[in-house]
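Morning!

This is the sequence you dropped in the shared folder:
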Amino acid sequence: MSPPNSQVSATISTTTKEKLDRFTEELGLKKNFVVEQALLYFMESRRQLPDEAFIPTRLVLDDEDLNRIAECLQAAPAPSRALRELMRGTDD
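The structure's back. Tokens below.
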């Protein structure tokens, strides 16, 4: 016997609602199922991953931000010996 269902209410952006509508229609899924699964995945990932692993989904980067990111990527140091060994899977 499954537990009784509860209803929650949330205000979401029109854009998110439209994405949910298209997603569920394209895949033939029920919105209730998608929302519940998304909440469960989100809560579990927040328990298991550090805060640094999460990037806001509505993060808006301007040209200055993108230029700083590009500079950091271009100036990235060469991988260390330990990193190369880790990526190769060697234990030495």
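Headline: The CA atoms of residues 33 and 90 lie 43 Å apart.

More detail when I'm at my desk.
O.
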